[in-house]
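Could you help me review a protein record that somebody else here produced? This is what I was given.
***
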Amino acid sequence: RMFCESGDFLMSAVVSKDGRQVAFFLYDPDENNALYSPERPAFTMTCDAAKDEWRLVQERCDDCHYSARQCACSSRGRRELLSMTHSRQTVGDGINHCMDVRIAPSANYGEQTLISKLPVWNDEVGSL
């Protein structure tokens, strides 16, 4: 369970047994209300077997959130928010861990791509 600085509930997350899926819920499972459902996460993050490629999906996209299931948009009601790829590069005598992130476009912003910059070994100072 995650909380805001004020101590209010923010969200909860459940990790699958194999560690390849995380389900995020916007309702507190410890509260006695009908809003929380373990079968209906708000977001799901999944990865491949090597845990190098990750995807974050909004389980019901904003464009068809209130539409009947048969009227859902082309994404079938789900919307990919971002994808991440982890990689490793040898730099000098070490290994640099890289992450490339693609953020899906929204109504306010176009698609964004974030790429980590590889460090360069500096022989003069013996450091990256």
